[in-house]
Specification:
Layout: H1 3-27, H2 65-78, H3 80-83, H4 122-131, H5 146-158, H6 162-165, H7 182-194, H8 198-201, H9 210-217, H10 239-248, H11 263-275
Length: about 300
């Protein structure tokens, strides 16, 4: 079995598991009562908030032997503790984390600007390293130099055969966001109901829908239903961030791509999701293992 076939087989097995869980949740939908999801154990839900995307370099530098060596050294010192020396997500600290570290050998990434099914661009990987993944122990590495971050990008790509056999699809261009107003949010609320978003995220966005309860019963760290009220979106809280997540989906999770919706529908849904936020995350990095409340934590996002 080739490397690509092995990856495809593992992804098919994951998809089958998700389908089974969703079928179970729909079967029991009449009897299951929604409830707020429990707090993650271990106090590891870090509350930093990634800011707007920084100005991206026009193109990555040439992948030289020196950059590969630098990336390998940085990965060993900064990343292997969680992601493992082989990039398979089995580092010595992985078992203690509430969110399973990404298995880079699969070449499957949640945060991409490319359509569903495509590998991310180099710029996507660079952006994730720079901004972090909010609500997880994956902190922003903006303190590293640009050269160091590109070196890590090359190291991450080296773990998966997909980056040797595939090319990223054309990135999705995010259009200009419309003004958030009551009309837009009301359209989004209607779509939220029509698209059955509440089955996972709950009627009020608390992450306590019927499907969320079914996933809880699997005792798996693979699926974490987003509680919109807490404002911890893994890509960011800006309209453009949510648009891209809705348009591309979160690969490797039940959150599929809404690639059949029109742009105006995506924007309406994004505006409504933002209106559900009740708690402002911190703008600065707090000490790890804390649950420090942000100033004005009960204030909704702008435009509410």
């Amino acid at each position: 079995m080739s490397g690509s076939e092995e990856v495809a087989c593992r992804l098919q097995n994951l998809a089958a598991m998700k389908t089974l869980v969703l079928g179970t949740c729909l079967f029991f939908s009449v009897s299951v009562e929604a409830a707020s999801p429990p707090e993650p154990s271990g106090g590891w839900e870090l509350r930093w908030m990634i800011g707007p995307p920084a100005a991206m370099p026009k193109a990555p530098p040439p992948e030289t032997l020196a950059l590969r060596a630098l990336g390998g050294s940085l990965f060993e010192r900064r990343c292997a503790g969680c992601h493992g020396a082989k990039g398979n997500g089995l580092g010595p600290h992985a078992a203690r984390l509430p969110v399973r570290p990404t298995d880079f050998t699969l070449g499957v990434y949640k945060l991409r600007s490319t359509p569903a099914g495509s590998i991310p661009t180099d710029g996507d990987l660079f952006a994730t390293l720079t901004r972090g993944i909010h609500g997880t122990p994956m902190l922003p590495w903006a303190a590293l130099s640009e050269k160091e971050r590109w070196a890590l990008v090359f190291r991450l790509k080296s773990f998966s055969v997909r980056f040797r056999e595939e090319r990223p699809a054309r990135p999705i261009i995010v259009p200009t966001a419309p003004k958030e107003d009551r009309t837009l949010r009301e359209r989004g609320a209607a779509l939220y109901g029509k698209l059955l978003c509440a089955h996972c995220h709950g009627e009020e966005g608390l992450g306590n829908g019927i499907a969320a309860r079914a996933y809880d019963r699997t005792a798996s760290r693979e699926v974490r239903i987003r509680d919109f009220t807490r404002g911890r979106f893994i890509r960011g809280t800006e309209m453009e961030d949510i648009y891209l997540t809705l348009r591309t989906g979160l690969e490797g999770t039940p959150m599929g791509a809404y690639d059949t919706l029109r742009d105006d529908e995506i924007w309406a849904l994004a505006a409504y999701v933002r209106s559900l936020v009740r708690e402002r995350p911190l703008q600065e990095l707090p000490p790890a293992r804390t649950h420090a409340q942000a100033p004005g934590a009960t204030t909704a996002v702008p435009g509410r």
